Amino acid sequence: MSDVAITQNPALIEVNPPLVRAPDLHAVTDQISTIVEGDVLKTPMKYWIVLSFTGSVTLLLGAMLTYLVSTGIGVWGNNKPIGWAWDITNFVFWIGIGHAGTLISAILFLFRQKWRTSINRSAEAMTLFAVMCAGIFPLFHTGRPWRAYWLFPVPNTDITMWQNFRSPLIWDVFAVSTYFTVSLLFWYTGLVPDLATLRDRAIPKVKQWVFGILSLGWRGSARHWRNYEAAYLILAGISTPLVLSVHSVVSFDFATSVIPGWHTTIFPPYFVAGAIFSGFACVMTLLLIARWTLNLQNLITMKHLENMNKIILVTGSIVGYAYACEFFIAWFSGNIYERFTFWNRAFGPYWWAAWSMYTCNVFIPQLYWFKKLRTNLWVMFVISITTNIGMWFERFVIIATSLTRDFLPTSWGFFHPTWVDMCTFAGTIGLFLTLFLIFARFLPMIAISEVKGVLAHEKRFFKGQKAPVEVLK
Amino acid sequence: MKLDPDQIREKLGIGADKVYGVIGEFDDPHELVHAGRKIREMGYTKLDAMTPFPVHGIDEALGIPYSKLGWIVIPVSLAGTTTAALLIWYVGAIQDKFVIGGKPLFDFTFSIPVMFELTILFTAFATFTGMWALNGLPRLYHPSLNYRNSHRASDDKFLLIIEADDPNFDPQKSAAHLRSVGAETVEVVEG
Fold it and tell me: How many domains does chain B have?
């Protein structure tokens, strides 16, 4: 009854317009599949130009890592007292970016947020690629990456020592590797029905075989969907605490130490909020480009973008609150080292990094209080980039300013990145973009079956009503 | 390698003379659910549907029981928790008795993160493999794919299936029943 009342009131529809716009289910299949199905040789030239650029940057990463391994960790700027510098900054930065993918795929699923269906696939892919980039830094920071299996409890004859489970660094190994594995399984599970759609549409024999094998013989049986939905719910249910735990464990790397500026209990929630904040910004950057180049305006609508901006506003404000809280506690604790660290953070030699972070993370996102600004594509594109600059600075500020001047003035020092530091970081950005470009070209970047589910629901809800026309930019 | 469908059928013991069932095609998920409910009221029990996305209400309409996946997952999850606890205890307190930072050799508090992570990891693997196992996937062939329009079931068509194993099944009558509940096209499919 209430359905009827709502559909008969055009004013309400204007307030609450449909999420996705497509004439019918087949149109959705067509629109998303054709991106993947086109002849590889006929891919627009601009794709190859961008891919060859990001691919070259990825090669730079390979060169830098080769140089690092063949020469030694000293080619990075890490030195006493700043033993964790750009590498751990970059590690936390990339892991944080990944968190938005899991938030969108798992937490928004549990909250029954239907708008997630247009963006979850690409956000999950982004998670996987970001975690890959993140893994590179601690792996090479060990100095001997070929001994990486020492991190896992596998019997080995090289050393007689075992892992120290009292250390948060080993917790991190378990947290990050679990995170990557679970994200991969979740992503693939979601992908299978869409791969079956592509298999059923494929004309070339090779594609029929490839999609046929990848789709595992999925045929959309109602019995299968029932188990599938149960599995999806369980995976979402476990990914939710998982994503909160991963960045909490990352923050334990700092919080369990006795360094002023690191030794605080606010770190886990503060890190998680910051991770979601930066991750949403990164999803925004990628989606705005994809939406524009692939003409996905009817599936990724202003409503999706606005909702994401609202989350950026909320998490940005939480991060701002955490900054303020840290300063208050530093003063309120009465601990002179803690007080000095925070004074030094804002007005010491790294003042420019700290103020870049406050500006980008706390002040700029406040513009999203205005509807006009949070629905402006240029504004959101710029803010999505400044947010990630700010969040990179946040990790740098936490790591570098806390280590630069600790208890003894005789051991104070200053960190200078080397060109290898800079090129390695740039290289991971290249790797991330390369992987994303390949994904966007060869796999459905929007969850076809999930979007069709939303569309079918809305078609019934808006029966007899003309779908309101929104100006598509 | 060239695959001959006839050869595969022969190997799997599924001759062309066998009937898999009758498939009726619908345009709309709600029509499918209504039709499914009516067909079940006619006394059919071996029913299935093929849909491009999970259609809510079809499980109740066709009498598909709730997924048993949870029963597979829970024991494996607990095995994950136990594995982690035993691992940390064995490594720290038995194999490598090394006091670090004055901390105990084994304690529940510092074991929590790894116990949690391994619980999640085991749960994820159990969910993933358990779901495919319950579905009988992966598989290379299924008779329902012999339906002429089965490729549309992953696109925009909704198929209702009465399987031949059903005691009430009769190719002619069942096809008529499917037509009577509103199926646009109905086809008897070979197994």
Answer: 2
The boundaries of the domain holding residue B128 are 69-135
Same domain, B130 and B149: no
In a domain, B178, yes or no: yes
Q: Which of A338, A341, A340 is nearest to A330 (CA)?
A: A338
Residue A324 contacts B, CB cutoff 8 Å:
no
Count other C-beta atoms under 10 Å from residue B65's C-beta.
Answer: 8
Answer positive or negative: Cα dihedral of A204, A210, A215, A221. Answer: positive
How far apart, in whole angstroms, are the C-alpha atoms of residue A444 and residue A441? 8
Tokens of A57: 């940057």
**What is the pLDDT, as a whole number, of residue A347?**
93
Beta bridge partners of B160: B24, B49
Q: How many CB atoms neighbour CB B55 within 10 A?
A: 22
pLDDT at A204 over 90: no
CA dist A311 and A281 (Å) reads 10
CA angle A85, A91, A96 (to 5 degrees): 125
Phi, psi of B102 (to 5 degrees): 65, 15
| Minimum distance, in Å, between the CA of residue A250 and any CA atom of chain B | 11
Name, in order, each residue with C-beta under 8 angstroms of A257's C-beta and a sequence gap of 6 or more: A263
Query: What are the distances in angstroms from CA A119 to CA A101, A311, A363, A447, B53?
Result: 9, 14, 27, 8, 17
Per-residue tokens: A137: 């830094």
Distance CA A379, CA A373 (A): 6
> Would you state the pLDDT for residue B8?
67
Query: What's the pLDDT band for A65 if we cut at 50, 70, 90?
Result: very high
Return the percent helix, strand and coil in chain A, to nearest 5.
75, 0, 25
Would you state the structure tokens that stand for residue B39, as one six-digit string?
């067909």
Q: Nearest CA to B51 among B43, B59, B41?
A: B59
- Looking at the structure, tell me whether residues B129 and B84 fall in a common domain: yes
Identify whether B64 is part of a domain.
no
Percent helix, strand, coil in chain B, to 5, is 50, 15, 35
Q: Is B188 on the interface with A (CB under 8 A)?
A: no
Give the residue from A223, A233, A257 with the most B CB atoms within 10 Å of its CB, the best one to mutate. Answer: A223
The DSSP-derived string for A195-251 is HHHHHHH--SHHHHHHHHHHTTT---BHHHHHHHHHHHHHHHHHHHHHHHHHHHHHH
B44 and B78 housed in the same domain: no
Nearest to A445 by CA among A233, A237, A289: A289
For chain A, what is the mean pLDDT? 87
Residue A92 has pLDDT above 90, yes or no: yes
d(CA A213, CA A420): 42
Residue-range domain boundaries for chain A: 78-142+178-415+443-450
Chain A 2-41, residues with CB within 8 Å of chain B CB atoms: 24-26, 29
Report how many Cβ contacts below 8 Å link chain A to chain B: 189
- For the whole model, what pTM was predicted? 0.89
Q: Are B38 and B181 in contact (CB under 8 A)?
A: yes
Q: Which amino acid is at A235?
A: L
Tell me A468's DSSP state: P
Cβ within 8 Å of residue A103, ≥6 positions away: A243, A276, A279, A280
- Interface contact B6, partner A, CB < 8 A: no
**B131 & B146 share domain:** no
Within 13 Å, how many C-alpha atoms sit on residue A437's CB side?
20
CATH topology of domain A78-142+178-415+443-450: Formate dehydrogenase/DMSO reductase fold (1.20.1630)
